[in-house]
Amino acid sequence: MDTEAVRALFDIQMRRDAAPEPGARVERFAGVVRQTGAAVHDWTGVLWSDLDEETADAAIAEQTRWLAGPEGAGREFEWKLYAHDRPADLGDRLLAAGFTPGPAETLMVAEVAELPLDGQPPRGVRVETVTDAPGVFLMAKAHAKAFGAPAEALHARLLDQLTRSPGSLVAVVAMAGGEAVCSARMEFHPGTDFASLWGGGTVPEWRGRGIYRALVAHRARIAAARNIRYLQVDASDDSRPILRRLGFTPLGVTTPYLRQG
Asked: What is the pLDDT of residues 48-64, one digit of tens each?
């Protein structure tokens, strides 16, 4: 893979020229692209920026003013910073403006045609497609247990997305008997060469059995059937080595800088 070319394509299609998620809107300012979710629990933040030492502070101040206003009230706002974004000290400037950095993740991309598609879940585990509220509840329950964090906002977002635009994603849950042990989704981005993979966290007692790998393969098969060229993941430290073995290539590091409205 020509990593520089693919990263440039990702920056253009998925960040600079990004279409809004279902129900959201994308606004373009001088050097900044911001998405505002339809509801308070929807993702809101900066997708892309093209700034320098002279323009960065003013751009940050504009976003914090908006967040402090009536439309930003109650929202979690994320400035999604990539290591190749400029200026080089943009993270420090965000920190000084009251943003809090979250855990860094690795931007990874794979060509769907190069991925192994035959991965299957272990014995006793089945993969179910989620299309309704009970399935979303199971997804959120598995997510909360896997990541050790509340999943109420994820639960609300997925319910909204399945209602507003069910064709914009594929959501799945891995079941062991009646227990949800892993959940994941793939979101589609019409007009781009990419689909994105999210979730995949496995509850602690079921880790190390190939469930995460099986859910990647399951989604990759769907992507291949839809002639999607690339799959993109923001990979945690736990998932990065698995994805490397499957054929994903690191393109850089992304860090969420968060601020509450």
From this structure: 999 999 999 999 999 99
The pLDDT value recorded for residue 101 is: 98
Q: Are 135 and 147 members of one domain?
A: yes
Q: Hey, which residues does 123 pair with through a beta bridge?
A: none
The count of other CB atoms within 10 Å of the CB of residue 23 is 16
Examine the domain organization and report whether 62 and 30 are in the same domain: yes
Would you say the pTM of this structure is higher than 0.85?
Answer: yes
Q: Tell me: pLDDT of 30 over 90.
A: no
Q: Are 249 and 3 in contact (CB under 8 A)?
A: yes
* 183-190 CB contacts, 8 Å cutoff, 24+ apart: 183/130, 183/138, 183/139, 183/140, 183/142, 183/143, 183/146, 184/215, 184/216, 184/219, 185/139, 185/158, 186/219, 186/222, 186/223, 186/231, 187/21, 188/226, 188/228, 189/13, 189/14, 189/18, 189/19, 190/19
Sequence-separated (6 or more) residues with CB below 8 Å from residue 93: 56, 57, 60, 87
Task: Choose one of 60, 90, 107: the last residue of a domain.
Answer: 107
Residues sharing a CB contact under 8 Å with residue 180, sequence separation 6 or more, in sequence order: 138, 139, 141, 142, 173, 174, 203
pLDDT over 90 at 42, yes or no: yes
